[in-house]
Amino acid sequence: KAGVTQTPRYLIKTRGQQVTLSCSPISGHRSVSWYQQTPGQGLQFLFEYFSETQRNKGNFPGRFSGRQFSNSRSEMNVSTLELGDSALYLCASSWMPSGVPTPYNEQFFGPGTRLTVL
Amino acid sequence: KNEVEQSPQNLTAQEGEFITINCSYSVGISALHWLQQHPGGGIVSLFMLSSGKKKHGRLIATINIQEKHSSLHITASHPRDSAVYICASRGGYGGSQGNLIFGKGTKLSVKP
Questions:
Q1: Mean pLDDT score, B56-83
Q2: Pairs of CB atoms within 8 A across A/B
Q3: Residues forming beta bridges with residue B55, ordered by sequence position
Q4: I need a surface site. Which of A37, A56, A84, A86 has the fewest CB within 10 A?
C-alpha cells in the first residue's frame, strides 16, 4: 500500500500570497489531520477531517482553512501569507475500523510540505 | 490546558547504551503517542498507549496514568536510532480523535 503523499514537497511564496497544500491519505483511511511544525513552536495541531467533515480545529487564525473530498484527499489553504507561516506542514491519516474517530487510532504521517515565505 | 513536557531535550549516548526519554502531561488523557522524526522531517508513529507497557523490538514504552508520566526506553542503542523522539497526548472522545498536543521533542544522538 502506498503511504501518505503530500504535494508539493517544497514551496516558496511571498508575503500576502495564498497557498494550497494537498494530502492524499493511505487507501481506505478516512481521517486526515494536519499539523504545523516550526523551530520555535514545535508541532501544533491544525485540523482534523473525517468523511468530509471538520471534526476538530486547532488554535490558528481564520487564514488557515481546509477541506476534505469524497475520496478522502484533503487540502489546506493559507491566505495572506505571513513570514511566520514558514514551516513544515504535515498531514497524517488514520484508519477507523469502527467507522467513528476515536483517540486510539494510529496515525500515519506524510513526508510534509516545507513552505518558505519571503 | 494540557501541557506536555519532555526530558531531556538533548541526549548523546554511546552505541549499546540503555536510553530513557521521559514525558509528563498535566491533565487526564485518552492516549499517549510516541513518535520518531528523522532529519528531513519524516515522522513515524512508534507507540500508542492508553495504559501499561508496549514493546517493539528494542523499544519499550510505558505509561503511568496516576502519575501522568510515560517513558520511552531504547535497549542496546544503535547509531540508526539517532532521531528526535516526540511524545504527544490526545484527549479525544468518540466522534473526534481530539487534538494531539506535542512535547518539544528529545534529540537523541548515538555515537558508534
A1: 95
A2: 79
A3: B60
A4: A84
DSSP assigned state of B104: -
Distance CA A112, CA B25 (A): 27
Residue A74: pLDDT band (50, 70, 90) is very high
At residue B79, φ and ψ (nearest 5 deg) are -50, -30
DSSP E strands in A1-118: the ranges are 5-7, 10-13, 19-24, 31-38, 42-50, 53-57, 64-68, 74-78, 87-94, 108-109, 113-117
Contact (Cβ atoms closer than 8 angstroms) between residue B30 and residue B100: no
Residue A77 and residue A18 in contact, taking contact as beta carbons nearer than 8 Å: yes
| Continuous segment of H or E residues that includes residue A76 | strand A74-78
Residue with cell 547504551: B17
Q: Take residue B98 and report the three cell numbers written for it.
A: 481530539
For residue B52, pLDDT beyond 90: yes
